[in-house]
């Protein structure tokens, strides 16, 4: 059985606490006699890296990221670093990883565990059994396009510019991945863009339509304006299977989808790149959707499930270990059925637990499954 290498980047705030729970699960998997083995190395990113090294990620950590089979990332940021220079802000470390490793596809599943259907802000019948995937383009568009600047005009006013840039190839590779993923799910893709007011939206519609015709005519395909998509997600979320969209709209729509599952603390994600020609491996980073939650950091209150479920996605997508991924996801579902809840998903009549107790319970279920 081969050994898989993981780079752990806990980052800031609750990132550190929830990564500790993933390390315990890795320890459990490594302790099994016949299972796959994982070799881990850790480093700093975000504000923690800035405090130690004056940058949001060091070249040494970048080299480790390139060498690893997969990166498991916690969260970065917090008010402590609000005034650091823009190029060294904590988020710059994550953006650099995404950009340098060319992690162009962000997979954000929104799955509603039956035990949590009542914790959603939507009615149970709208979310029970929900299983949608927001596929967000991650390396192009408004967050990276140049010019990106604030200039002072002659009259003393300031003018800010962000540029939304997309090329045919950037759109082609992500929508192709969307059709591939849909074929393994409910065979349906919605492409969300603003072709009514944005030239980049026109190109998204043209390219996706052409890819559908030539590459995936077997997949049900719909075009939807991004603002309508935001409304439909609230009105009738189960109409969606895979939603493929650009970086900016994907950022917003995936956070909206997050709320349907009850809490940001439940949502994992995967960021995938192309397949490396020499190693044959797909570059990949796994992280919870939520941020560093400075309001609860260091208190042992954070929900570790999104982080643990992100690791389960690594098992599935980077290492083809669907049995182990099912085990981890099954253990999460079981502890929820038992009524254990962190504060963010607490409901009347349930048992409130902290980060470590939730990790303990998931580990106990894993041990019971493999006994
Ligand atoms: P956040 O996701 O950190 O928190 C939003 C709310 O959800 C908070 O009330 C928080 O307590 C709660 N929450 C989030 N995760 C939780 C968990 N696992 N368990 C329990 N409750 C949880 O978003 P924010 O407050 O807007 O941002 C805080 C910092 O995180 C900012 O510096 C922001 O830039 C950064 N951020 C980083 C990432 C990332 O690293 N990928 C993503 C989003 C925000």
Task: Tell me about this structure.
- This protein is of the alpha/beta class.
- It folds into 2 domains: 1-108 and 263-371, Isopropylmalate Dehydrogenase; 131-259, Isopropylmalate Dehydrogenase (3-Layer(aba) Sandwich), CATH 3.40.718.10.
- Helices cover 41% and strands 23% of the residues.
- It contains 12 helices and 14 strands.
- The chain has helices spanning 14-31, 47-53, 59-67, 90-100, 124-127, 168-183, 199-215, 226-235, 247-260, 305-317, 322-337, 355-370; strands at 3-11, 37-42, 70-75, 105-111, 131-137, 145-152, 158-163, 188-193, 220-225, 242-245, 268-275, 282-288, 340-341, 351-352.
- The strands form 3 sheets. It has a 10-stranded mixed beta sheet, sandwiched between helices. The chain has a two-stranded antiparallel ribbon with strand order 6-7.
- Strand 6 and strand 7 form a beta hairpin.
- Helix 11 (322-337) crosses helix 12.
- It is globular.
- The mean pLDDT is 94.
- The structure holds nicotinamide-adenine-dinucleotide.
- Nicotinamide-adenine-dinucleotide binds at residues 14, 75-78, 91, 94, 264-265, 287, 290-296, 302-303, 306, 342, 344.
Number of helices: 12
Which structural class fits the helix and strand makeup? alpha/beta
Rg estimate, integer Å = 21 Å
Overall form: globular
- CATH fold title of the largest domain: Isopropylmalate Dehydrogenase
Determine and state the CATH class of the largest domain: Alpha Beta
The domain count comes to 2
Order of helices and strands: EHEHHEHEHEEEHEHEHEHEEHHEEH
Number of strands: 14
What small molecules accompany the polymer chains? Answer: nicotinamide-adenine-dinucleotide
- Corresponding CATH superfamily of the largest domain: Isopropylmalate Dehydrogenase
Amino-to-carboxy terminus distance: 20 Å
Please estimate the helix content: 40-55%
CATH architecture grouping of the largest domain = 3-Layer(aba) Sandwich
Strand content: 15-25%
Largest sheet: 10 strands, mixed
Mean pLDDT equals: 94
Low-confidence stretches: none
Strands in their spatial order, largest beta sheet? 2-1-3-12-11-4-5-10-8-9
